[in-house]
Amino acid sequence: MENFDVLQALARTALAGNAEAISHQVERLADRLAEAGEEGDAKKLRALVTRSKSRQAVEPMNLQPSGVTFAPSAGQRLTAKATLPVDRESGAPLCEIVMPERGEMLPVLPSQAQAAYDSLIGEWQHEVELTQLGLPVSQSLLVYGPPGTGKTTLALAIASRLGRPAVVARLDGLISSLLGNTARNLGALFDFCNRYDSVLILDEFDAVAKIRDDVNEVGEIKRVVNALLQNLDKRTQFGLTIAVTNHERLLDSAVWRRFEHQIELGLPSYDGRFEIAHLSLSGLEDADTVARAIAQLTQGRSGADVRTLTLAFLKMSVLQHQSSSSHLGTLQNAIQATGMRGVRGADDTVQALVEVLREPPASLGQTELAALAGKDRKTIGRWLNEAKV
User: Are residues 15 and 144 in the same domain?
Assistant: First the structure.
């Protein structure tokens, strides 16, 4: 086949994904066609190269997000077997792929966070209609708050709800011992994710999004932040990006402006703690009463702590099935087993716990307290009277 050597080289460079090398091989093929007298075909190939180079020349590098509306990206389909980008120094992968799961559990959200979640999901569910009207869907979300409040769980739930794989990257893992490689790692991560129809989740986001005027940071870190901003700007053309951080105060002000939606997940209220506990206790006959007790005892704790204590209670209930331990006794054992500091109950007597659960907002009645403590109502009444003296 005539010019097969050029076609073979073109195929090889195309598969490698090097744009400059591909252009060179196309120009070689155009030269061969011109030498063979096929000037028309050669001219068409050179026009393709010229247009490609023009697009690369105007590609945004360090621009603020504009009001330009981008059509929905038709990225490639991402599978769990895709080759991941790696750190050149260590060979460690820069991300992991989490495939969408039907029924991914959504964390218990406060009303404001739930409204933001519903708004974001609503936009993406009507992506085509909005785009046809010249209205781009929101493509960035920042989730922040204390550890254990469900931030990463929320991000994964959003990806599953949208039916898209999640590309999850812990940004603290992208920081190379050779700082110059950190910006390169960021570029490789974003280039990988921008090829696919996926949700990019940037965990531990503050690791590379720190305030640039921090006197404790070296100049290279500031260049890393600039590289992050450039990649975030470019990402707006492709898909949804969710950043997750426990330390929002460390974020550079320019980073905040890149996120159209922002959700704060704080420590859950009593009602939130009750709902979290009740989700795991739903199969228990007296789930409401036990959930109210757990919610009362975990004031000031995270949702993760509430869930951990609830699961520990259920395990203890199974292990102590043959014993005569009451729910309150089992709950005390669960608190001791988890080693949670600041949770009432581990060193209290059952009588003391009854007094705590009698107080608002749990405000358990004598019948409920009797069932929890494994005592009769008369005993509970006597304990409460003694507490008043």
Answer: no
